[in-house]
Amino acid sequence: MFMDPQAREKQMKMDETVDIIRKRFGFYSVQGGLMYRDKILSACDTKSDHTVHPHGYFG
């Protein structure tokens, strides 16, 4: 929100590029540098592990 417009545009382009690469080569094809050092984080696949519940918990 308070980011420089040019920096925001650059970040958005990088995110889109990462999404395209992951769609083509798989989720684990691009990871952050921390993922290579932390084995627990590198084993986490939030996209496939995510469960959407059709009913709310408090309903």
Binned, the helix content reads: 55-70%
Overall morphology: extended
Query: Strand percentage, roughly?
Result: under 5%
Count of alpha/pi helices:
4
Task: Give the termini distance in whole angstroms.
Answer: 33 Å
Compute the average pLDDT: 76
Structural class: mainly alpha
Number of strands: 0
The major sheet is characterized as:
none
User: Radius of gyration, Cα only, in angstroms?
Assistant: 16 Å
SSE series: HHHH
- Unreliable segments of 5+ consecutive residues: none
Structure description:
- The chain has 59 residues and is an all-alpha fold.
- It has helices at residues 5-25, 33-37, 39-42, 46-49.
- The chain is extended.
- The termini are far apart.
Q: What does this entry show, briefly?
A:
This protein has 59 residues and is mostly helical.
Question: What distinguishing features does this structure have?
Answer:
mainly alpha; 59 residues
Layout: helices, strands, pairs:
Elements: H1 5-25, H2 33-37, H3 39-42, H4 46-49
